[in-house]
Amino acid sequence: MSGADAAITGGCLCGAVRYRVRGVLRPTLSACHCSQCRRHHGALGVYSSADAAAVEIEGCDSLRWYQSSDRARRGFCAVCGSKLFWQGIGDAALDIVAGSLDHPAGLKLARHIFVASKGDYYELTDELPTVPASN
Amino acid sequence: MAAKRQPPTHGSGRCLCGAIGFEVMGPLRDVVVCHCGQCRRQHGAPPGYSQASWENIRLTGVENLTWYRSSEGARRGFCRICGSSLFWEPIDTGRVSIAAGSLDAPTGLRTVRHIFVNDKGDYYEIADGLEQLSGSMVNARPL
Fold first, then answer.
1. A63 contacts chain B (CB < 8 A)
2. Which of A123, A131, B53, B107 is a good FRET partner for A90, with 20 to 30 A between their CA atoms?
3. Alpha carbon A108 to chain centroid, angstroms
4. In terms of CA atoms, which chain B residue is nearest residue A11?
């Protein structure tokens, strides 16, 4: 479920940061292959998205923000290093890391973005749509 | 017939902000993707890991490296400034797994195996035809 009444929760590996989305979660996931996401995650950056105003965060004292470019910042847990959020500066939306969700049921990987920057150590084989740069 | 491919014997990498850097002056294992719940939580997606001997690794900015003991047998290293995931270390083995995303291009590596596929997320498929293990590599063919 991803409706307004669904209990959409998530958090980091150690449990220091928890969040609840009181609203709609975008059901389509984008896998980002840009070098920033790959360095930060040590993996692809796989994200859903929600209205930032609808996301309640607990454990904010453990949530660190790193401004990774002049247009975006990334949120992670200072205790365990789990990646949680990506937010464009001034955006009303908050992108949510798929792996941080407790129950990602109903979500589906739908596209690969920034594939022009992909790593040389893997191949793209799943036939989903690919985009050279951003969404 | 092409000569048997040899994995690289040198590599370098860094976190996103550059506070931590490393150089590997020895063989790097090809990449294994882990689908376990801990890895997917910490990285946010299934991570691909190379591996090397600690004795062949030179680290810079180690004061920015935070270790989190994620289980009895292993700890995870990340940058305290930018949060980048860099290492997964099985305790007392002398070896460390290196997140492939942290390596500078070209890596010369290739992905060869998926592990803990029984724990994979339901929102993606494994479609590359590579070897899949239901759990760990403990009893698997050495890479």
1. no
2. A131
3. 13
4. B41
